[in-house]
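hey
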């Protein structure tokens, strides 16, 4: 295994593309990931190379920033020095696939072989009904709550609000915190509330349906939280601000991602042993839905080593390697069977409840121009939360902006 540092110039990438496998050397399969702080990736790569002595794996440990790694992948593709294997966040799939950068994987992982993975993670790996990614790491939004302050998790938005009002003591302890800053996390929060009201951004034919009564109801509920059961400052919260407020005992409920469970249960955490997790609430007659996060492997359409790349992808996403990445790096697996694994449950006894949440996960709009769609949603949802626009005006303006983005 060869590990490279975070700074990789385009000239170096081009040189690597030119010389890779030259002179009769074994092919080197390259992929880019965040720093391997737990050592799980190194263990997986070493195990693969031991079982496949004819192939090297070149792990490029890039920066922690997801956006920066996406830019590094895109720059490599544009420079003609693409990585052989692409470790992708969900929103990258349609963007990269639409540009022809990814090899379809339907022949390698047909539909009947995908049932071992969580359904949301499979859905987030598709673009125009073709598979471009094999799920490796799951992630989805969920509700955390103080088990010593409320006796059950709420099913509906009205239940959440009622429980929060009874248990809160503002300004020292608010009822609910979430990610309200104008950034991608706000889109995930809004979509969960929108889906929970029975609405959506697009219908099945790709038509914009955001400007609907369900959308207005969803955004009206979100905006009504601020200053009522959520602090005014929630409009500046990202994940860590919400976690810190909840962990310090300053909130009864919190919307966040699964990563927050570990610090909440740390020895020094004031709320250790007093936290429950559950599905996000929904409106009567609708269903709970969580915004899908998570990562998986794609294969470059231009790699000269497609067979070797697939051998690595199939190996890395197998149950044994997903378990390694959980035990070493704390990553959540995408294979259903691992949520019943005795060793994983001994370390993570909350996994049955986590699985229940993950089964509600849905991908954000799978569109190659998702970044622009997200920007429109961020601007107008944020404007409603801070009172610059009414929820009805914000929904209408966001829908109009999205139509302009997707129309040719």
């Amino acid at each position: 295994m060869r590990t490279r540092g975070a700074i990789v110039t385009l000239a170096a990438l081009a040189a690597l593309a030119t010389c890779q496998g030259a002179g009769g050397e074994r092919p080197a399969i390259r992929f880019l990931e965040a720093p391997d702080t737990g050592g799980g990736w190194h263990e997986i790569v070493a195990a693969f190379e031991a079982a496949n002595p004819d192939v090297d794996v070149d792990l490029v440990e890039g920066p922690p920033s997801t956006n920066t790694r996406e830019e590094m992948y895109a720059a490599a593709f544009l420079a003609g020095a693409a990585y052989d294997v692409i470790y992708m966040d969900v929103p990258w799939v349609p963007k990269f696939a639409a540009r022809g950068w990814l090899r379809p994987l339907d022949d390698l992982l047909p539909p009947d072989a995908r049932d071992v993975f969580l359904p949301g993670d499979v859905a987030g790996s598709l673009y125009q009904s073709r598979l471009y990614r094999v799920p490796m790491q799951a992630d989805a939004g969920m509700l955390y709550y103080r088990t010593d302050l409320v006796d059950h998790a709420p099913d509906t938005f009205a239940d959440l609000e009622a429980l929060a009002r009874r248990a809160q003591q503002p300004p020292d302890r608010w009822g609910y915190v979430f990610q309200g800053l104008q950034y991608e996390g706000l889109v995930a929060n809004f979509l969960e509330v929108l889906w929970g009201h029975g609405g959506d951004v697009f219908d099945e034919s790709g038509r914009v349906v955001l400007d609907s009564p369900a959308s207005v109801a969803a955004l009206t509920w979100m905006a009504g939280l601020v200053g009522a059961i959520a602090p005014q400052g929630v409009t500046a919260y990202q994940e860590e601000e919400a976690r810190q407020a909840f962990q310090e005992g300053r909130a009864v409920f919190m919307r966040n991602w699964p990563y927050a469970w570990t610090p909440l249960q740390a020895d020094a955490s004031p709320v250790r042993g007093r936290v429950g997790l559950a599905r996000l609430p929904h409106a009567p007659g609708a269903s709970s839905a969580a915004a899908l996060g998570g990562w998986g492997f794609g294969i470059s359409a231009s790699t000269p080593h497609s067979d070797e790349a697939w051998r690595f992808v199939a190996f890395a996403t197998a149950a044994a390697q997903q378990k390694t990445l959980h035990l070493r790096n704390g990553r959540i697996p995408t294979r259903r069977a691992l949520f019943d694994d005795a060793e994983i449950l001994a370390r993570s006894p909350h996994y049955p409840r986590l699985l229940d949440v993950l089964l509600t996960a849905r991908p954000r709009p799978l569109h190659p121009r998702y970044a622009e769609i997200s920007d429109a949603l961020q601007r107008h949802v944020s404007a409603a939360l801070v009172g610059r626009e009414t929820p009805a005006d914000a929904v209408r303006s966001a829908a109009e902006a999205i139509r302009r983005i997707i129309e040719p």
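The radius of gyration is 22 Å. The domain at 2-139+293-360 is CATH 3.40.190.10 (D-Maltodextrin-Binding Protein; domain 2).
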